[in-house]
Task: structure prediction
Amino acid sequence: QVTLKESGPVLVKPTETLTLTCTVSGFSLSNARMGVSWIRQPPGKALEWLAHIFSNDEKSYSTSLKSRLTISKDTSKSQVVLTMTNMDPVDTATYYCARMLGGDYVDYWGQGTLVTVSS
Amino acid sequence: EIVMTQSPATLSVSPGERATLSCRASQSVSSNLAWYQQKPGQAPRLLIYGASTRATGIPARFSGSGSGTEFTLTISSLQSEDFAVYYCQQYNNWYTFGQGTKLEIK
Result:
């Protein structure tokens, strides 16, 4: 059974750095066809792709947020970590981690974690 | 960046009727397009990939068509559980989502 679960702070202050962890089970992050993305959704708004990491450790980032994002993985712990620097209230959103089969579409989503940016 | 534009923003349809949702790409994405359904408080669910292939467990009333820049999601006979927000996503050049279509009960 494939599952992904996000963890991290629910509240961060403006200018702080957000660190989110995605713990996966039911598949290996070293599997050649498996990649994990982070996707966010502000309240009442659309989905926005942030970053992706492939099984070979290749990474890709949203053009508009690239300077603020870092994605990494620890295959032995089955975890994918996203850091986002210089948080702003407009970054308030539900953050999802998601498995992308073959680096294409999302076949499994985490439950999401709501992160609020406020002083 | 490829921009995905969905229309209409809101679609009001009666149960049992057909719903047709559109998604347009700012440049060709070939058939590298997926559709997702999202209900309030839930993560999205994959419906269609490759523009027209239903994901595992998705009822046959859901169908996708199109290629290049124009795509359509059709729900042939709406059930109560189908009223939700639908998103398209291209994966031809990294990933971008449309802004969503809310399907509501008429």
About this structure: The mean pLDDT of chain A is 96. The CA atoms of residues 16 and 86 of chain A lie 5 Å apart.
